[in-house]
Amino acid sequence: MAVFIHPTADVSARARLADGVRVWNQAQVREDAVVGEGTLIGKDSYLDAGVHVGARCKIQNGVYLYHGVTVEDGVFLGPRATTTNDLTPRAIFPDGRQRGPSDFRVTPTRICEGAAIGAGAILVCGITIGKFAMVAAGAVVTRDVPAYGLSCGNPARLVGVVCACGAKLSGGAEQLSRCPACGITIAEEALALHRQLSK
């Protein structure tokens, strides 16, 4: 399937877009960004230089992915979700001199396979969002979210466990083997986290 780039999008000739990638209105994809097969990049989104995005991701409108961010396959990023990449940002040095691009310290962030980041969430750099984890809309995430974890609030806290389908798991962990919402076998990692939170 061919790559689609909207006429108003700004995609660097040095970006690498796999088959089936769709880039919509006013989105910008900078140099050396890599985007996997079938990924959708929504209107007004920004992929900074060197950002890596996996296959079959859905990047909704106005998402900002800054240098140092890695997004694995099958990730959902809700509208206006934002990443950061410097834990001690400053525009100037103490003596008033302006900082240049090489004066910033990039701290990497990873969003693992199948994770979902809600609308307006902010991910402070240096964290990992685990496989099939879910971050609620508007959350400000300052620490790792484990695989299948559900995190919400400001600052975000781990409040539950979700199935790979996205349904929140409830009830006794010893009684769960299949997700009541979709019927698939619940991952052992999810069950272990559920047991831990149920104590």
How would you portray this structure in words?
Helices cover 6% and strands 27% of the residues. With 199 residues, it is mainly β. It is globular, with a radius of gyration of 18 Å. The model has no long low-confidence stretch (mean pLDDT 95).
Q: Give the % helix.
A: under 10%
- The rounded distance between the terminal residues' Cα atoms is 49 Å
Number of contiguous helices: 1
The main pleated sheet reads as: 9 strands, mixed
Spatial shape: globular
How many β-strand stretches?
22
Order of helices and strands: EEEEEEEEEEEEEEEEEEEEEEH
The poorly predicted ranges are: none
Percent of sequence in beta strands: 25-35%
Instruction: Please tell me how large the radius of gyration is.
Output: 18 Å
Structural class: mainly beta
Mean pLDDT across all amino acids: 95
- Strands ordered across the widest β-sheet: 1-4-7-10-13-16-19-21-22
Question: Which key terms come to mind for this protein?
Answer:
199 residues; mainly beta; six-stranded parallel beta sheet; 1 helix; globular
Concise structural overview:
The protein has 199 residues and is mostly beta strands. The chain has one helix spanning 188-198; strands at residues 4-5, 10-11, 16-17, 22-23, 28-29, 34-35, 40-41, 46-47, 52-53, 58-59, 64-65, 69-71, 76-77, 82-83, 109-111, 116-117, 122-123, 128-129, 134-135, 140-141, 149-153, 156-161.
